[in-house]
Amino acid sequence: MSKDPSEWHPETVLIQGGLSRSHHMETAEAIYMTSGYVYDSAEDAEHAFKADGARYVYSRYANPTVTTLQERLRLIEGAEACVATASGMSAVYNALIPLVKAGDRIVASRALFGSCTYIIGEIMPRFGVEFEFVDGTDLEQWEAALSRGAQAVFLETPSNPTLEIIDLPKVCELAHAAGATVVVDNVFATPGNQKPLELGADVVIYSATKHIDGQGRCMGGAILGTQEYCKEKVTPFIRHTGPSLSPFNAWVLQKGLETLPLRVERQSATAFALARKFEDHKALSRVLYPHLDSHPQVELAKAQMKLGGTMLTLELNGGKEAAFKLLNGLKVATISNNLGDSKTLATHPATTTHQRLTDDERVAMGITDGMLRVSVGLENVDDLINDFERALSVL
What we know:
Elements: H1 10-16, H2 42-51, H3 64-77, E1 81-85, H4 88-96, E2 105-109, H5 114-126, E3 130-134, H6 139-146, E4 152-156, H7 168-177, E5 181-185, E6 203-207, E7 221-225, H8 227-241, H9 247-258, H10 260-278, E8 284-288, H11 298-304, E9 311-316, H12 319-329, E10 334-335, E11 345-347, H13 359-365, E12 371-375, H14 381-393
Parallel strand pairs: 2-3, 2-4, 4-5, 5-6, 10-11
Antiparallel strand pairs: 1-7, 6-7, 8-9, 9-12, 11-12
């Protein structure tokens, strides 16, 4: 078998990619749980710092365990480089901040995770960065916003929690014509389910806390793009501001990558089964799932995403009261604002992940009081169907 990862299938890359064994020749990747490194002489230390990256000098800068994770993610994403971060939100911030300065503009889709909206709409303006939110599914709004120029475009597709699908090739074309770098949050789709770089994006980010870990154990993030962008723009910010990933967390995330395709395929199949089962339930006004025929952008979703994903959104007729009653009636699924876990997790976005938004902002994003976001896990599909069926029956 070839030792060239470019000749391997994705499942092999996620297990073998970037593997660098120590002299002990261990089976599992080693955890280099160290903050610093030693030198044979003062001259050796001087050379190490002058070489700037040729060897490890401090784990805030780089660490062997983190390097393995970065290389594995780089290979599976098809990127030139990867920078790991301490969390998904640190990945969002550190992906955007090197791209803009006072007087520059960010154009972003309106349907974003609450903390992403906060970074773009509240933090960036403090530094003189202008922003504009658009309906991500409306190409005319993108065209109008980008006609005034922009340095960065930020979006997530599918969106959180309404599962809107954005036409990546067309938005990237408009953004590049305006001189903007396109940053895509690919966390809902996962690395194996959608390839934003192949669709025209410049930068891909992940909250590795989600599907990459996949078992609710630790936090982490990743930024992927060109060698020049990652090393010359992002890395200096990471080094000097400190959102570096723990070596232990990097090791846990490596272990998560080994089973990522198996988990996401199973979770996506179960999510699709749940969506089809409850699509016409009388207690629900809508069931949103990207590959469901009733999804308003199903054809675009199928063109961009290999599978429909692990997330589905339920909208109940009875508003917040009905949504809470359903959540409280679940016995197998768990109430939690996390996602991508092996356990099925459900949350009420209006009062949790997006509670900081005003009523008008939530309406503009399509988030209603009756909406529930469900992250489908690895439980038996029949047990989950029975769980939701029983909870819905009391409404």
